[in-house]
């Protein structure tokens, strides 16, 4: 059953209480990292999940799905459009310790972006990686940039070749660890698991 905007906001506020904001796993034991992304062609969603080895970036697993979406994109309610395609493709991969989602986590007006939604649903460490800022204020602190929201540090800005990405907690990982891992697996602008998932989902949409 499709949710109204009011119902969707209420669901976010309820599920936000389940987000775990600290590391539940020693980050040194994280070996396989997943990335998931969705591309669109009309009302068709082409989802791709890619799992890479943390050190070598070798692809361990990949999966693809095609589905029909009915909900439009509504800022702050991306989960209405993307959660089902993402969860569907994630059912096809299993060998990952941590997941990166193309979208925000706690860096969200209700502290519950798509990365939090997916993280709570799969109950695994999850990181939100956004390419644009949805909310909050970027502040320079020492030699780094952070994003403040409602008086709290909710995001970290990372730059590769001068282009920013915005990292935030999705679930079961600290912000410090999230930034460390994203930085570690980034060769270009976005982390490699997400870059491969994005590239492959776009190829599917074009085909």
Description of the structure:
The chain is an alpha+beta fold and 207 residues long. The protein has a single domain, classed as archaeoglobus fulgidus dsm 4304 superfamily (archaeoglobus fulgidus dsm 4304 fold, 2-Layer Sandwich), CATH 3.30.2170. It has five helices and nine strands, in the order αβββαβαβββββαα. The protein has a nine-stranded mixed beta sheet with strand order 3-2-1-4-5-9-8-7-6, sandwiched between helices. A hairpin with a 2-residue loop joins strand 8 and strand 9. The radius of gyration is 16 Å and the shape is globular. 43% of the residues are buried.
List keywords for this structure.
207 residues; nine-stranded mixed β-sheet; globular; 28% helix; 9 strands; alpha+beta; archaeoglobus fulgidus dsm 4304 fold
Task: Write a compact overview of the structure shown.
The chain is an alpha+beta fold and 207 residues long.
Mean of pLDDT: 95
SSE order, one letter for each helix or strand = HEEEHEHEEEEEHH
Number of discrete domains: 1
Strand proportion, as a percent range, falls in 25-35%
Number of strands: 9
